[in-house]
Amino acid sequence: MILHEDMKIGKYELRFQTSSWAISELAQTAMDYRLGVKMIREGRTPEFFNKWKRQQIINPVEAMQIHGSLRSFVQHIEVLGVVVTEGIINSERIHDFTLRYGLNAPDATHISIASRDCGYFVTNDEDLCDKKIKEIHVVKPATLETYAHLRRFMPR
Fold first, then answer.
1. Which residues are within 8 A (CB) of 139 and not within 5 positions of it... i.e. 6 or more apart?
2. DSSP characters over 17-64
3. Residues with Cβ < 8 Å from 132, sequence gap 6 or more?
4. What pLDDT digit, counting tens, does each position of 73-92 carry?
């Protein structure tokens, strides 16, 4: 939440960007969350969640709610100045990132998209931060604070 607050006050001299691919992953996360709640309510154990969820379908009302939440989220981040770009998928780059750094396909896709236009990839994923990816600086949100050249001068 600190990064969110910093973005609201314009603390950084940079353009924040996300991709349509990242927004699509949020749809998956929202669906997984709803299915997880359903699974718990039904008394099922979570160790079979990934197999079980492939057999489930979100009902049209829930799908509409998720779409609405995603639209609201995109509107909110755009107000903060985040640019949502089309996530152009380049399979060769994704393969390269997967093979060179041992990334899973979703992470390799994020890095492939971001490294085309961005200098920094901000994530809370510690494993991804530890990969030492040469094509882009992968940093945690709190790390941005340590880069003086990214901060805007803020008179007190």
1. 120, 121, 122, 123, 129
2. EEEHHHHHHHHHHHHHHHHHHHHHHTT--GGGHHHHHTT----HHHHH
3. 101
4. 999 999 988 999 998 999 99
Please name which of 87, 83, 79 lies closest in space to residue 20, comparing C-alpha atoms.
Answer: 87
The pTM of the full predicted model, rounded to 2 decimals, is 0.81
Assigned token pair, 156: 């007190």
Give the tens place of pLDDT for each residue, 89-118: 999 999 999 999 999 999 999 999 999 989
The packing angle between helices 91-101 and 105-117, to 10°, is 110
Question: Which of 27, 34, 35, 29 lies closest to 55 in space, CA to CA?
Answer: 35
14: which 2 tokens? 């940079």
β-partners of residue 19 are 85
